[in-house]
Write a structure and sequence with these properties.
Structural class: mainly alpha
Main location: membrane
Number of helices: 16
Number of domains: 3
Protein name: MFS transporter
InterPro entries: EmrB-like (IPR004638), MFS (IPR011701), MFS_dom (IPR020846), MFS_trans_sf (IPR036259)
CATH topology of the largest domain: Growth Hormone, Chain: A
Oligomer: single chain
Organism: Streptomyces malaysiense
Low-confidence stretches: none
Membrane topology: Multi-pass membrane protein
CATH architecture of the largest domain: Up-down Bundle
Helix content: over 70%
Number of strands: 0
Largest sheet: none
């Protein structure tokens, strides 16, 4: 049984290490969008290259995050966590010195691999290291500090882009890693799951990432209508079919198909796909809209997005408690509808927009919707499967959200009629943005309809409840690991 207590020096070091590590990935997910216009101008990149700057990271992260958690259980959670931190920082350095968009995109894909090793590891270290009596408080402190980091992210990203330059958005991870790694090696105990056995589902992970990459390529490059687009789409669908086949026939699949035998689990993941597809498209385009069409600086654009994260930081725990009393159907229906209303209010945001009159009301409504739905969504995922499989279910839900976001970033500019150079013209981008927001709102309404008709109205008695009560990520629902230690 792990015996590290929260109030001890070692407990403080463990908490610091995991906060530093998880902050690297969380900051990256919130600040890169703010830097995109400057990256595009400095590297003379097309809109497609900017889409790949976001999606190259998401492809490898979404495709490998389930495998990353399994590697930690087998080979040691501290070892894989440290490997993830070093990998992430090295890839960040490559991003920061990339001379052109092609090398930046390749480095972002490598960064996603590091994120897949790092992201599950920080929570797993806390759960495996702290005494059971302190574990819940430690998870709460970790998620709370992570929420503060997420809230600071857009402001920090805007300040870096406006001041030292966009390359420091990536280079900032290097000193964080240099602080995190020695602390982890000195103060964090190693742990592993002695019951972990079987072969790793490397083939499933590769097929999943390959299908996402090929389909993303087809969507981003579809404006050209070339034969390569058709071939990529066909190969992507074939890889997806092969992924399903492999997962159904492996003895130890990365994504166990029988978990979808739960109607509630399947329904919540369908809602997740809709919700996070809309969020992914919204935050990608809004960071560009505020700079390209409205004409704000990166610092102003990054700061403008703070209300959504701050609302989640302050009220997500209360939302989770409320959903325990009402059941998941109501918040999972009302939340997406509020977010859809917020996105429609963004139609007021264009050249000459006022922050208090136009931007802030939309983001407050959007934040209220996110507060309403994110915590209940996570709780419902955990409650819809056996307690022993809660960690796997959370990982699947997290990966599904990230996959939905990357597909939205690839598809939404195409659906909105954005040209390759749309972000260079304020009027062209504003017109495309006005076409994109109703599409995002429509996807959210679809999610609300699915929740109303498919999600059962009452919570399951005796189910697993989330250990994380603060939810601040804008790109995916929070991961929940397996309880207990070695």
């Amino acid at each position: 049984m792990p015996e590290v207590r929260l109030g001890t020096p070692r407990g403080t070091w463990i908490l610091l290490t995991t906060v530093l590590g998880s902050s690297m990935a969380m900051l990256d997910s919130t600040v890169v969008n703010v830097a995109l216009p400057r990256i595009g101008r400095d590297l003379n990149a097309s809109l497609g290259a900017l889409q790949w700057t976001v999606n190259a990271y998401m492809v490898t992260l979404a495709g490998l995050i389930l495998l990353g958690g399994s590697l930690g259980d087998r080979y040691g959670r501290r070892r894989i966590f440290v490997l993830g931190v070093v990998w992430f920082a090295t890839a960040s350095l490559l991003c920061g010195i990339a001379p052109d968009s092609a090398l930046l995109i390749a480095a972002r894909a490598l960064q996603g691999v590091g994120g897949a090793l790092l992201t599950p590891g920080s929570l797993a270290l806390i759960q495996a290291s702290f005494h059971p009596d302190d574990r819940s408080r430690a998870v709460g402190l970790w998620s709370g500090f992570g929420g503060i980091g997420a809230a600071v992210g857009p402001f920090l990203g805007g300040w870096l882009v406006s001041g030292p330059g966009w390359r420091w958005v990536f280079l900032l991870n290097v000193p964080l890693a240099l602080l995190c790694v020695p602390v982890a090696m000195r103060h964090v105990p190693e742990s592993a799951d002695e019951g972990a056995h079987g072969r790793f589902d490397v083939l499933g992970a590769v097929l999943g990432a390959l299908s996402l990459a090929l389909l993303t390529y087809a969507l981003i490059e579809a404006r050209g209508g070339t034969a390569r687009v058709v071939v990529s789409a066909v190969l992507g669908l074939a890889a997806a079919a092969a992924f399903v086949y492999v997962e159904r026939h492996r003895p130890d699949p990365m994504l166990p198909p029988d978990v979808f035998a739960s109607r509630q689990f399947t329904a919540v993941n369908l809602v997740t796909l809709c919700v996070y597809a809309a969020f992914g498209g919204f935050f990608f385009l809004t960071a560009l809209q505020l700079q390209v069409a409205v004409g704000w600086s990166p610092l102003a654009a990054g700061t403008a997005l703070l209300p959504t994260t701050v609302l989640m930081l302050l009220f997500s725990s209360s939302s989770g408690a409320l959903s325990d009393r009402t059941g998941p159907r109501l918040p999972l229906t009302v939340g997406p509808l509020l977010c859809a209303a917020g996105m429609l209010l963004m139609l007021r945001v264009g050249p000459g927009a006022s922050y208090p009159a136009d931007v802030l009301p939309a983001l407050l409504v959007m934040g209220a919707g996110m507060v309403t739905l994110v915590a209940p969504l996570t709780a419902t995922v955990l409650a819809s499967v056996d307690t022993a499989r809660a960690g796997v279910a959370s990982g699947i839900n997290n990966a599904a959200a990230r996959a939905a976001g990357l597909v939205a970033v690839a598809a939404l500019p195409l659906l909105a009629g954005m040209g390759a150079d749309a972000y260079r013209s304020a009027s062209a981008f504003d017109a495309s943005f006005d076409r994109a927001m109703p599409i995002c709102a429509g996807v959210l309404v679809l999610g609300a309809v699915l929740a109303f008709f498919l999600v059962t109205g009452r919570p399951t008695p005796g189910c697993r409840h989330p250990e994380r009560h603060t939810h601040c990520s804008l790109t995916a629902p929070p991961l929940e690991g397996e309880r207990g230690g070695p």
